[in-house]
C-alpha cells in the first residue's frame, strides 16, 4: 500500500497508541477507585441507611395501612376522589397479582430518587437560569447524561460503589434529573420580563425576586419537569435492576431472558400503574395550585 | 447514462458469479462475551475466505439467540452455546428438526462454581472450602445490611439462577448468615467482582469459566467436599421444582456449536468444519488473558489467534480451504 | 420657584457587548445606524440632559424605538448608563451600593408598566401591597394600606381576585394603586395607558389628574401620544433616535416645534383640544372705558377698527360699535348705557380652544377674553382660529 492509503481508508490512530490510551485511562480509573472508593462509599452511607430503612418501612407496614396512607396523600395532593379511588384499585390489583413486595421496593427507590432529583435539580436549574456561563457548561452535560447509554456509566459506578441501591440511585438520577434542571432553567428564563422589572423596581432583593416571583411563576414549567423526571426515573427501573436494585425490574428482566411474556406484562403494567399515579397526582397538584396563571 | 447501462449487466453478472461459488449469506451470533466473540470472528473469517460465504456477525446472547434460532431460523450459527442454560428448549428444537448441534466449542466444557478471590485464600487457606467460608461468614459483609453476609448469586432469569439457588439452599448458606444477592445482570455480577478485587475486599459468589473475568482476576473455586453427582445435578440441582437439593459440585457444562437445521442441511462442508472447530479451556484462558491484557475485541483476537496457531486451525478444514484462509491472512 | 428633583447630565446608553469601547465613535458624532452597522451596538440614548422639578408631570415623548423606555429605566437604574450622571434629590444614583439602591427603589420611586407588570400568582390585594411587603412591613400594615388604595382607584371588592380575572383597565388601576401604595415621591409611568382603549384611557387620565391634584407627586410619564402628553404634561421632552430634540411647555412644543420631527408630531394633534384660549388670543383691539358717548367716540376714533369692548368699573360689559355711538352722538354727554353696547359673550382664557370654536365662529365680532376678575385679557377671532388650526384644517372642518 502506498502513502496515499489515507485517501481510501480513514487515517486511524495507531492501534498500539490507542490501546495505550485505553489501558492508561482504565488503570487510572482503577487506581482512583482503589484510592478513594472507600471514602466515596462512606459518603453515601447515610443515604444507603435511609434507603434501606425506607424500603423496610414500606415492606413491613401492613398493606392496608400503606394503601390508606398513599390514598390519603393522593387525595391531599389532588383533591380528586376519582384519582384516589383508582389508586386504591391499582394497589389492590398489584397486591392480588403477587407484586406487592416488588412494587413497594420500586416505590421506595423511585420516591427517594425523585425527591433527590428535585432537591438537586431545582437549585442547579436556578444557577443555570441566573448565569449564562453556567448554562453553557451544564447544557452539554445534560445532553450527555440523557443520551449516554446507561451501562457506560453504570459499570464504573459499580466499580466504585458495588452493586445495589446506591449505584442504582445514582444511575436513575443521572438519567432522570435533566428534565427538572432544564425546565427549571427554562421556566425561570421565561418569567415575564416586565413582572421581573416590576419586582426590581419596587426594590425586591434578589432572594425576594427568586422566591417571590421567579420560582412561583416558573412553577408550572418546573412541575412539568418534575413530572418528566418521575416518568424517566420509572423507566429506569429495569436498567437499575440490572445492577442489583430490587423491585419490579427484576421480574421484567427475568421475563426478558426467559420469554415469560405474561410475567413481563404484569410487572410492566405495575410500573405503568405507578407511573400513571405519579403523573396524574403531580399534574392534579400542579393544576390545583396554579389556577391563576 | 451509457455507463449505467453497462453497470447494470455487470452488477447482475457479479451477483451470479458470487452466488455460484459461495455458500450464500450466513449469519453468525456474536455473543457479548469475549470467548464467544473470538470464536464467532474465527468462524466468520474462515467461512468468508475459506468457503466463500457472505458471512455476517449479528449481536447475540444465549437466550435471545437460542429462541430466535428455534422460532425464526436465524441466525444460522451460534458458535458458543452454553446449552445447559436453555436445555429443554434446545433439545426440543433438535427433536423438531429445527436445530442441529455441530460439536463442542470448548472441548473441556464450561466450568461453573462458587468462587472466592485468590488473595483471601492466600491469607486463610480454609476459605477454599465451604466449611471455611461458613465459619468465616462475617468476613463477607452484605453491602446493604452490616448484620448479614452476602452471597452473589446468578442474575435473575438465567438458568444458573436455579442451580446456584438450589446449592445455596443445600449448603444451608441462609442459616450461616448469607443473603442471596441478585446482581441483576452479568455486568452487575462481574462489576461486583472487579470492585471487590480492586480493593481487596471479600467476595463470595457464583461465576463461570472460561471468562475474561476469571482470566483476569484470579479466583479459587470453593470445594464443597461433595464431588460431582451428575445425576443429582441434572435431576434436581438444575431443576426449578427441586424440593430437597443436595450438595454437589457443578459438572462441566456442555458448550456447543449450534446451527439451524436448514443451514446444516444446505452447507454440509461448513457444518463439517463447525463440528471440528474446538478449543481447550487452557488455550481459551490464555487467549482470554491476552485479550484482556490488550483490551482486544473479537476480530483483533481472531487475527492474533489465526496467525499464531496455524497448526491448530488447519486441522479443522480441508487443505484447499486452509490455503485460501492463509492467503487471506497474508493479505491482512 | 420650581425645585429640581431629578437631574440628568450627559447621559449615554449603548447596548451591546462592549459599549465602553464604542463610546469614542459616539462622541465623534457618528449616527446610530453607522454605529450599529459597524459595531453591532445600538445607541439607545445620546447626550441626554434634563431637569425635572418637584411636583410636576414631566412627559417624555417620541416614536417607537426612540429610547423612552430606556430613559425612564435609568431613573431607578433598571438600566445602567454607559456614561452620565443621574441625580435624584441630590443623591448620585450611580454611586449607590446594591443595598442602598434597593432602599432607594423601595422608598423613593414607584413605577407603572405598559403591560401592567402584575404578578399573576398574587391576588389584587397582594399585588397592591407588594411594594410595602418588599419593604418588610407586616401583613396587617400593608393589607390596610392596599385596601385603602384599591378603594381610591375604584376597585373596592376586587381584593381577592387574581389579575387574570380583571379587564385591562382594571389591571392598570391595580398597577396604579400598587405604585401609589408605597407613598413614593416619584412616580414613573412607562406608557401606562397605551394598552387601554381610548375611552378607558381618557378615564384613567382624568383619574391621574384628579389624584395628582391631591397628591402632588413628581410624575414622569411616557407616551407616544401627543394628545395624552398635552393633556397631562406640565412639561414635555421629545426624544428622537435616542436624542433629546426639544423640551418645553406643551404650548412651546405646539407653537414652536424645534424641527421637522417635532412638527410632524404636532401636525396630527388636535390643537383645539390641546391649546387654551390664552395661548392663541390676540391683544384686545379696542377697549372703551369712557363714561359718556362723546368720550367713547373719541376713544373709538383712536382705534383702528370700528368696534371696541366696553369695560367699566364692574368689568367687561359688551361690545360697542362705531355705528351705535354715532347713532346717539346728538347728545354727547349722554351716559353710556346698556342700550348702546351689545351683549357679546366673553370667553375664559383657560378655556380649551375646542370649547369656544362654535361661539367664535358664530359671532360677528372677535370674542373678548375675560378672566375671572372680569379683566379684559385679549380677543379671539375666527381668523385667529383658522390660523392656529391651519395645520389641521381637516379637524376644524369636521368640527364645523
Ligand atoms: N436590551 C437591549 N438591547 C439592545 N438594544 C436595546 C435594548 N433595549 C432597547 N434597545 C434599543 O434601544 C432603542 C430604544 O428602545 P426603547 O425600548 O427605549 O424604545 P421606546 O421608545 O420605549 O419604544 P416603544 O415605544 O416601542 O416602547 C431601540 O432601538 C432598541 O432596539
Ligand atoms: Mg417602550
Automatic annotation (TrEMBL), chain A:
<dbReference type="GO" id="GO:0005275">
    <property type="term" value="F:amine transmembrane transporter activity"/>
</dbReference>
<dbReference type="GO" id="GO:0043190">
    <property type="term" value="C:ATP-binding cassette (ABC) transporter complex"/>
</dbReference>
<keyword id="KW-0472">Membrane</keyword>
<feature type="transmembrane region" description="Helical">
    <location>
        <begin position="83"/>
        <end position="100"/>
    </location>
</feature>
<dbReference type="InterPro" id="IPR035906">
    <property type="entry name" value="MetI-like_sf"/>
</dbReference>
<comment type="similarity">
    <text>Belongs to the binding-protein-dependent transport system permease family.</text>
</comment>
<feature type="transmembrane region" description="Helical">
    <location>
        <begin position="106"/>
        <end position="129"/>
    </location>
</feature>
<feature type="transmembrane region" description="Helical">
    <location>
        <begin position="150"/>
        <end position="177"/>
    </location>
</feature>
<dbReference type="GO" id="GO:0031460">
    <property type="term" value="P:glycine betaine transport"/>
</dbReference>
<keyword id="KW-0812">Transmembrane</keyword>
<feature type="transmembrane region" description="Helical">
    <location>
        <begin position="260"/>
        <end position="278"/>
    </location>
</feature>
<dbReference type="InterPro" id="IPR000515">
    <property type="entry name" value="MetI-like"/>
</dbReference>
<dbReference type="Pfam" id="PF00528">
    <property type="entry name" value="BPD_transp_1"/>
</dbReference>
<dbReference type="GO" id="GO:0015871">
    <property type="term" value="P:choline transport"/>
</dbReference>
<keyword id="KW-0813">Transport</keyword>
From TrEMBL, chain B:
<dbReference type="InterPro" id="IPR007210">
    <property type="entry name" value="ABC_Gly_betaine_transp_sub-bd"/>
</dbReference>
<protein>
    <submittedName>
        <fullName>Glycine betaine/proline transport system substrate-binding protein</fullName>
    </submittedName>
</protein>
<dbReference type="Pfam" id="PF04069">
    <property type="entry name" value="OpuAC"/>
</dbReference>
<feature type="signal peptide">
    <location>
        <begin position="1"/>
        <end position="19"/>
    </location>
</feature>
<dbReference type="GO" id="GO:0022857">
    <property type="term" value="F:transmembrane transporter activity"/>
</dbReference>
<feature type="domain" description="ABC-type glycine betaine transport system substrate-binding">
    <location>
        <begin position="25"/>
        <end position="306"/>
    </location>
</feature>
<dbReference type="GO" id="GO:0043190">
    <property type="term" value="C:ATP-binding cassette (ABC) transporter complex"/>
</dbReference>
<keyword id="KW-0732">Signal</keyword>
Automatic annotation (TrEMBL), chain C:
<keyword id="KW-0813">Transport</keyword>
<dbReference type="GO" id="GO:0005886">
    <property type="term" value="C:plasma membrane"/>
</dbReference>
<dbReference type="InterPro" id="IPR003593">
    <property type="entry name" value="AAA+_ATPase"/>
</dbReference>
<dbReference type="GO" id="GO:0031460">
    <property type="term" value="P:glycine betaine transport"/>
</dbReference>
<protein>
    <recommendedName>
        <fullName>Quaternary amine transport ATP-binding protein</fullName>
        <ecNumber>7.6.2.9</ecNumber>
    </recommendedName>
</protein>
<comment type="subunit">
    <text>The complex is probably composed of two ATP-binding proteins, two transmembrane proteins and a solute-binding protein.</text>
</comment>
<dbReference type="InterPro" id="IPR046342">
    <property type="entry name" value="CBS_dom_sf"/>
</dbReference>
<dbReference type="InterPro" id="IPR005892">
    <property type="entry name" value="Gly-betaine_transp_ATP-bd"/>
</dbReference>
<keyword id="KW-0029">Amino-acid transport</keyword>
<dbReference type="GO" id="GO:0005524">
    <property type="term" value="F:ATP binding"/>
</dbReference>
<dbReference type="GO" id="GO:0006970">
    <property type="term" value="P:response to osmotic stress"/>
</dbReference>
<dbReference type="Pfam" id="PF00005">
    <property type="entry name" value="ABC_tran"/>
</dbReference>
<keyword id="KW-0997">Cell inner membrane</keyword>
<keyword id="KW-0547">Nucleotide-binding</keyword>
<dbReference type="Pfam" id="PF00571">
    <property type="entry name" value="CBS"/>
</dbReference>
Amino acid at each position: 500500500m502506498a502513502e496515499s492509503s489515507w485517501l481510501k481508508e480513514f487515517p486511524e490512530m495507531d492501534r498500539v497508541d490507542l490501546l495505550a490510551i485505553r489501558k492508561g485511562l482504565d488503570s487510572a480509573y482503577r487506581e482512583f477507585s482503589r484510592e478513594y472508593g472507600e471514602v466515596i462509599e462512606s459518603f453515601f452511607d447515610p443515604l444507603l441507611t435511609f434507603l434501606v430503612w425506607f424500603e423496610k418501612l414500606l415492606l413491613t407496614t401492613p398493606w392496608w395501612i400503606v394503601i390508606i396512607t398513599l390514598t390519603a396523600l393522593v387525595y391531599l395532593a389532588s383533591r380528586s376522589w376519582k384519582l384516589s379511588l383508582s389508586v386504591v384499585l391499582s394497589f389492590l390489583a398489584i397486591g392480588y397479582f403477587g407484586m406487592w413486595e416488588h412494587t413497594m421496593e420500586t416505590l421506595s427507590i423511585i420516591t427517594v430518587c425523585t425527591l433527590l432529583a428535585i432537591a438537586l435539580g431545582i437549585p442547579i436549574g436556578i444557577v443555570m437560569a441566573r448565569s449564562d456561563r453556567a448554562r453553557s457548561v451544564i447544557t452539554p452535560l445534560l445532553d450527555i447524561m440523557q443520551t449516554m447509554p446507561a451501562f457506560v456509566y453504570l459499570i464504573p459506578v459499580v466499580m466504585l460503589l458495588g452493586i445495589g441501591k446506591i449505584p442504582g440511585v445514582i444511575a436513575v438520577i443521572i438519567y432522570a434529573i435533566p428534565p427538572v434542571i432544564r425546565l427549571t432553567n427554562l421556566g425561570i428564563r421565561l418569567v415575564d420580563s416586565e413582572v421581573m422589572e416590576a419586582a426590581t423596581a419596587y426594590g425586591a432583593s434578589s432572594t425576594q425576586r427568586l422566591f417571590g416571583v421567579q420560582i412561583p411563576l416558573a412553577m408550572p414549567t418546573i412541575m412539568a419537569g418534575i413530572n418528566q423526571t418521575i416518568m424517566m426515573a420509572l423507566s429506569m427501573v429495569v436498567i437499575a435492576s440490572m445492577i442489583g436494585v430490587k423491585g419490579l425490574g427484576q421480574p421484567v428482566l427475568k421475563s426478558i431472558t426467559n420469554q415469560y411474556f405474561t410475567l413481563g406484562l404484569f410487572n410492566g403494567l405495575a410500573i405503568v400503574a405507578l407511573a400513571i399515579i405519579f403523573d396524574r397526582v403531580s399534574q392534579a397538584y400542579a393544576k390545583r395550585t396554579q389556577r391563576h396563571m | 447514462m451509457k455507463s449505467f447501462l453497462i453497470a447494470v449487466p455487470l452488477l447482475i453478472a457479479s451477483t451470479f458469479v458470487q452466488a455460484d461459488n459461495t455458500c450464500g449469506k450466513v449469519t453468525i451470533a456474536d455473543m457479548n462475551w469475549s470467548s464467544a466473540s473470538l470464536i464467532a470472528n474465527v468462524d466468520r473469517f474462515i467461512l468468508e475466505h475459506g468457503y466463500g460465504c457472505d458471512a455476517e456477525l449479528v449481536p447475540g446472547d444465549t437466550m435471545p439467540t437460542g429462541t430466535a434460532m428455534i422460532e425464526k431460523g436465524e441466525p444460522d450459527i451460534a458458535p458458543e452455546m452454553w446449552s445447559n442454560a436453555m436445555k429443554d428448549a434446545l433439545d426440543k428444537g433438535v427433536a423438531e428438526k429445527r436445530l442441529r448441534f455441530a460439536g463442542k466449542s470448548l472441548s473441556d466444557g464450561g466450568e461453573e462454581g462458587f468462587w472466592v478471590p485468590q488473595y483471601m485464600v492466600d491469607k486463610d487457606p480454609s476459605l477454599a472450602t465451604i466449611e471455611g467460608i461458613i465459619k468465616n461468614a462475617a468476613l463477607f459483609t452484605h453491602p446493604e445490611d452490616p448484620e448479614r453476609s452476602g452471597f452473589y448469586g446468578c442474575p435473575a432469569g438465567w438458568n444458573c439462577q436455579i442451580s446456584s439457588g438450589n446449592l445455596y439452599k443445600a449448603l444451608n448458606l441462609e442459616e450461616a448468615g448469607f443473603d442471596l444477592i441478585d446482581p441483576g445482570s452479568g455486568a452487575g455480577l462481574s462489576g461486583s467482582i472487579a470492585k471487590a478485587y480492586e480493593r481487596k475486599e471479600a467476595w463470595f459468589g457464583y461465576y463461570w469459566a472460561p471468562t475474561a473475568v476469571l482470566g483476569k482476576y484470579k479466583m479459587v473455586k470453593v470445594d464443597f467436599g461433595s464431588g460431582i453427582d451428575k445425576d443429582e445435578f441434572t435431576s434436581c440441582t438444575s431443576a426449578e421444582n427441586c424440593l430437597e437439593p443436595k450438595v454437589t459440585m457443578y459438572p462441566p457444562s456442555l458448550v456447543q456449536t449450534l446451527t439451524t437445521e436448514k443451514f446444516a442441511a444446505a452447507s454440509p462442508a461448513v457444518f463439517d468444519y463447525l463440528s471440528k472447530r474446538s478449543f481447550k479451556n487452557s488455550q481459551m484462558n490464555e487467549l482470554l488473558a491476552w485479550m484482556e491484557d490488550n483490551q482486544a475485541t473479537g476480530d483483533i483476537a481472531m487475527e492474533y489467534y489465526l496467525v499464531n496457531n496455524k497448526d491448530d486451525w488447519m486441522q479443522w478444514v480441508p487443505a484447499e480451504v486452509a490455503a485460501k484462509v492463509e492467503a487471506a491472512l497474508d493479505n491482512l | 420657584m420650581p425645585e429640581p428633583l431629578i437631574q440628568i447630565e450627559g447621559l449615554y446608553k449603548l447596548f451591546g457587548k462592549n459599549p465602553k469601547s464604542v463610546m469614542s465613535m459616539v462622541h465623534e458624532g457618528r449616527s446610530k445606524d453607522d454605529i450599529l452597522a459597524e459595531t453591532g451596538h445600538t445607541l439607545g440614548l445620546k447626550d441626554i440632559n434634563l431637569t425635572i422639578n418637584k411636583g410636576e408631570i414631566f412627559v417624555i415623548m417620541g416614536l417607537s424605538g426612540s429610547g423612552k423606555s430606556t430613559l425612564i429605566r435609568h431613573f431607578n437604574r433598571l438600566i445602567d448608563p454607559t456614561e452620565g450622571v443621574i441625580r435624584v434629590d441630590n443623591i448620585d444614583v450611580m454611586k449607590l451600593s446594591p443595598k442602598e439602591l434597593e432602599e432607594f427603589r423601595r422608598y423613593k420611586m414607584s413605577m407603572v408598566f405598559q403591560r401592567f407588570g402584575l404578578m399573576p400568582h398574587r391576588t389584587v390585594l397582594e399585588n397592591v401591597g407588594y411594594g410595602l411587603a418588599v419593604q418588610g412591613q407586616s401583613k396587617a400594615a400593608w393589607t390596610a394600606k392596599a385596601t385603602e388604595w384599591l378603594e381610591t382607584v375604584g376597585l373596592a371588592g376586587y381584593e381577592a381576585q387574581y389579575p387574570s380575572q380583571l379587564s385591562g383597565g382594571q389591571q392598570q388601576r391595580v398597577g396604579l394603586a400598587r405604585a401609589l401604595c408605597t407613598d413614593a415621591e416619584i412616580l414613573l409611568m412607562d406608557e401606562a395607558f397605551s394598552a387601554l382603549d381610548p375611552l378607558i384611557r381618557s378615564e384613567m387620565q382624568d383619574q391621574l389628574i384628579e389624584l395628582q391634584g391631591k397628591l402632588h407627586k413628581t410624575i414622569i410619564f411616557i407616551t407616544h401620544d401627543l394628545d395624552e402628553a398635552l393633556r397631562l404634561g406640565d412639561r414635555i421632552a421629545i426624544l428622537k433616535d435616542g436624542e433629546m430634540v426639544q423640551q418645553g411647555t406643551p404650548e412651546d412644543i405646539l407653537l414652536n416645534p424645534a424641527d421637522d420631527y417635532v412638527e410632524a408630531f404636532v401636525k396630527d394633534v388636535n390643537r383645539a383640544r390641546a391649546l387654551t384660549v390664552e395661548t392663541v388670543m390676540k391683544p384686545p383691539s379696542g377697549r372703551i372705558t369712557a363714561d359718556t358717548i362723546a368720550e367713547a367716540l373719541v376713544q373709538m376714533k383712536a382705534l383702528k377698527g370700528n368696534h371696541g369692548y366696553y369695560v367699566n368699573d364692574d368689568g367687561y360689559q359688551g361690545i360697542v360699535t362705531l355705528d351705535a355711538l354715532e347713532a346717539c352722538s346728538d347728545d354727547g354727554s349722554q351716559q353710556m348705557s346698556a342700550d348702546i353696547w351689545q351683549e357679546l359673550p366673553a370667553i375664559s382664557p383657560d378655556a380649551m380652544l375646542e370649547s369656544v370654536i362654535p361661539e367664535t365662529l358664530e359671532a360677528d365680532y372677535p370674542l373678548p377674553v375675560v378672566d375671572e376678575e372680569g379683566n379684559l385679557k385679549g380677543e379671539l377671532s375666527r381668523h385667529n382660529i383658522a390660523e392656529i388650526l391651519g395645520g389641521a384644517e381637516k379637524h376644524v372642518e369636521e368640527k364645523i
